[in-house]
Amino acid sequence: MAREKNQQIRVALFVTCLVDLFRPSVGFAAVKLLEDAGCSVAVPKAQTCCGQPAYNSGDQGDTRAIARQVIAAFEGYDYVVAPSGSCAAMIRDHYPPLFDDEPELAQRAHRLARRTHELVSFLRDIRKVDTVDADFAGSVTYHDSCSGLRELDIKQQPRDLLRSVRGLELVELPDAETCCGFGGTFCVKYPDISNRMVTDKAAAIEGTGAGTLLAGDLGCLMNMAGKLKRRGAAIRTRHVAEVLAGMTDTPAIGEGEG
Amino acid sequence: MEATSRSFKQNARAALGDEDLQQALGQMKLGFVANRANAIAKLPEFEALRAEGKAIKEHTLENLDFYLEHFDARVTEMGGHVHWCRTAAEARDAVLGICRAAGARSVTKGKSMIGEEIGLNDFLEGHGIEPVETDLGEYIIQLRREPPSHIIAPAIHVTKQQVADVFYATHSGLDADRPLEEPRALVDEARAMLRQKYLDADVGVTGANFLIAETGSTVIVTNEGNGDLTQILPRIHVVIASLEKVVPTLEDASTILRLLARSATGQEFSTYTTFSTGPRRPDDPDGPEEFHVVLLDNGRSALIGTEVQDILRCIRCGACMNHCPVYGAVGGHAYGWVYPGPMGAVLTPMLIGVEEAGDLPNASTFCGRCAEVCPMGIPLPKLMRHHRATEFERGLPPAPARLALAAWAFLARRPGLYRSVLGLKMRLLGGIGRRRGRFGTLPFAGGWTRHRDFPAPEGKTFQQRWDDAGGAR
C-alpha cells in the first residue's frame, strides 16, 4: 500500500478488467480526477475482474473466489473507486449476499460495499466536486449505462460535471436509458438480438448530431463504438472520465493512430 | 400447448426478420411506455402503494393455506364450488367435467392466461366442445390458431391488415367486398359475430385477477365488457385461476387494483372491474345458476419458501415486457410458451423446467428496467440469475461457453498469471490493431464482429503502465 500524506483521502482504484486491458487511458483519467479531488490513489496489484462474467453465468463458486480476492486486496483504504457503474454495483450490491453463510466474510464484504463507488458519482456526491478543469470543443451526447443508472442512481452527476467543461455542448440522447444491447456475455450469446438493440441505439446517437458519444462503462462504449464504426458513422466514442479529465489526445475508442 | 422455448434462438432470429412483427412491436413500444409513465407521474403515492401491494402479497403467500381454505369456505357458503387441482391435467378434467354435467356444446371464454397454461381450448375442442374467445385480441389469435404473444395484449403482434385478412377468410356469409380498413369496422364485425355466441353458450369461463378470501369473490378486469357477458349470460360460470391470485380482503384487492391498470395500460382503472360472488340468488336480477372456481397449483405451492417465491407476487400487468428491450426486439412468440418477457423468463423455467426453457433467463442484458417498473417489486434479474445458477450447476450451458468461462475464471483467480498472459495478448492485439484502431473480424469473436467492429486495445495494460510510471500500490 502507498504511503500517503496524512490528510489525504486514500482511494484504491478498482481499474476494471476492460479498462486495464483495453483502455488504460480511462484509468489514468480516473487517477487525475481523483487526485484533483484531493485523493491519493493506489492501485492494489491483486485485482483482475469483479467477477460479473461468472456471476451472471450462474457460476457461484468462481464468483465467490474472485469476490474474496477483491475483498482482501481492497481492505484498508478509505474508499474504493471504479470507472464503471456495473463493476461498482457488483461490489456494492452483489458481493455481500454472496456470503450469507459466512458471517465473517459477509461483514468484510459489507464494509467494502459501503466504501465502494463509481468514479463520477464519487466525485460529485462524496467529494462534492462541482467543476472540473477541462476543455472540450464540440458537442457530446451521453448514454446512461443500465447498472449505474438503476443500481447506483447515476444520472445527474455526469451531466453536472460535463456542463463545467469549457467549450462542451451536451445534447441529450433520446431513449438514453434504454439498454445498448451489450449485457456482458449477452452480446455474444444472443448476437442477433444484441445487434437489433445496438442498431437502434446507434441510430438514436447519430440522430443527435453530436460529434462525440460518452458513457461511464467501457463494455457499453465498446459495443456502441463498434456499431457506429461498422455503420460508418463519424461520431467518436469516449469514456466520460477522459473528457472530464481533459485527456482526449489519445485516439477515441475504435479509432486508429493512422 | 407444445413449448418451443428450446428453439428460442431460432424463434428470435425469425422474429427479427419478420417485418409485420417488427412494425407491430414498434407501435407497442410507443404506447405502453409513455402511458404508464404518465399514469405513474400523476400518482405521487406510487412508491408507497407499491410497498403496500408487495406487503399484501408477501403476507398472503406466507399464509397461503389459511387464505385459500378461507376462500374455499366462503365460496361454498355462497353456493359455489371450488375444485382444487394439482396439475394442468386435473384442471382440464375439472372444466370438462363441469361442461359434460351441463351437457355443454359451446363455451364462451374471457381472457385467461391460466386457460393458455393448461391448454384448455385445444382440450375442449378435442372433446367436442366449441370454445369461443370473447376478448377481441384472443378472438383474433384464436382465428389465426396461434398463442398470445403478450399477457394483456394477446394480438399485439398482429397488424390491422392481418386482422382484416383473417376476418375475410373465416367470417363466411358476409359480403366479400366489405371494407375492413378501419379498426371500427373490425371491432363492429367481431362484435356482431360474437353476439350470438354469447347467447348460445352453455358455460362461460373466465380467469381471475384476484380471489378474495374474505368474501369468496373472484375479480376480473377488462376493457371490453366481454368478461361480464361471458359470465352472466350462460347458465354456468367457471373461474379458472392459479392459487397465488388470492388476497385476504376486498380492501387488499382495491389497493392492488390501483397499481394494476396504471402499470399495464396507463389507465387509472380498467373500464370494467367485475366482482363475482357465488351463483345467482333468488332475488338477483341475473347471474349464473352454478358458480365454480377451478383452482390451479401446477407447481406453484412448491415455490413457497424458496428463493424464487417472489415471482408469485406477479399480478400479470405486463409492464416488465412492455419495457423490456429483448421483448421489444423479438416479441412474445419467440419465448415459445405461454408467458413471455421477463416474468415469463422467470416463471416458464419453473413451470416447464430449466432444461426446456433455459435460454429464456439467459436472454437478458440485466438492464433492470423490468424490476424498475414492476408494481410488485419483483427482482426479476435476480430470479433470472437464480435460474442461470441452476443451469450452471446441472452443466446445461453449451460446452464452448462452459470452457471459455472456466478458462477465464482460472486466470481471474490468479492475478499474477492473469497479468502476464493477458498483458502479452493485449500487447499483441494492440500492436496489430493500433493503426486502424479496430478489427472487422477476430478469431473466436464472430458473435461480436458479425455485427460490429471490435475496438483494438491500446497496447500495454493499465497495470503495466502504472508500474512503468512507478505508481503506488
Structure description:
- The complex is a heterodimer of chains A (258) and B (473).
- With 258 residues, chain A is of the alpha/beta class.
- Chain A has 13 helices and eight strands.
- Chain A has two domains: 9-125, Rossmann fold, CATH 3.40.50; 131-244, Rossmann fold.
- Chain A has helices at 17-22, 24-36, 52-55, 60-73, 85-98, 103-115, 119-126, 146-152, 156-162, 186-189, 191-208, 218-230, 240-244; strands spanning 9-13, 39-42, 79-82, 116-118, 135-142, 166-170, 212-215, 236-239.
- In chain A, the strands form two sheets. Chain A has a four-stranded parallel beta sheet with strand order 2-1-3-4, sandwiched between helices. In chain A, strands 6-5-7-8 form a four-stranded parallel beta sheet.
- In chain A, helix 12 links the parallel strand 7 and strand 8 (236-239).
- In chain A, helix 5 (85-98) packs antiparallel against helix 6 (103-115), helix 7 (119-126) crosses helix 9 (156-162) and helix 11 (191-208) packs across helix 12.
- The N and C termini of chain A lie far apart (39 Å).
- The model of chain A is unreliable at 1-5 (pLDDT under 50).
- Chain B has 473 residues and is of the alpha/beta class.
- Chain B has three domains: 1-17 and 317-397, no CATH class; 43-302, Rossmann fold (3-Layer(aba) Sandwich), CATH 3.40.50; 399-468, no CATH class.
- Helices cover 51% and strands 11% of the residues of chain B.
- Chain B has 23 helices and twelve strands.
- Chain B has helices at residues 8-16, 19-41, 46-62, 64-77, 88-101, 113-117, 120-126, 136-143, 160-170, 183-200, 226-232, 250-264, 319-322, 325-330, 341-352, 354-357, 359-362, 369-373, 380-393, 399-412, 415-433, 446-449, 462-468; strands at 81-85, 106-109, 130-133, 203-206, 210-212, 217-222, 236-242, 246-247, 272-276, 290-296, 438-439, 454-455.
- In chain B, strands 1-10-7-4-2-3 form a six-stranded parallel beta sheet, with helices on both faces. Chain B has a four-stranded mixed beta sheet with strand order 8-5-6-9. A two-stranded antiparallel ribbon of chain B has the order 11-12.
- In chain B, a hairpin with a 4-residue loop joins strand 5 (210-212) and strand 6.
- Classes of the chains: A alpha/beta (258), B alpha/beta (473).
- At the A-B interface, helix 1, helix 2, strand 2, helix 3 and helix 4 of A face helix 1, helix 14, helix 18, helix 19 and helix 20 of B.
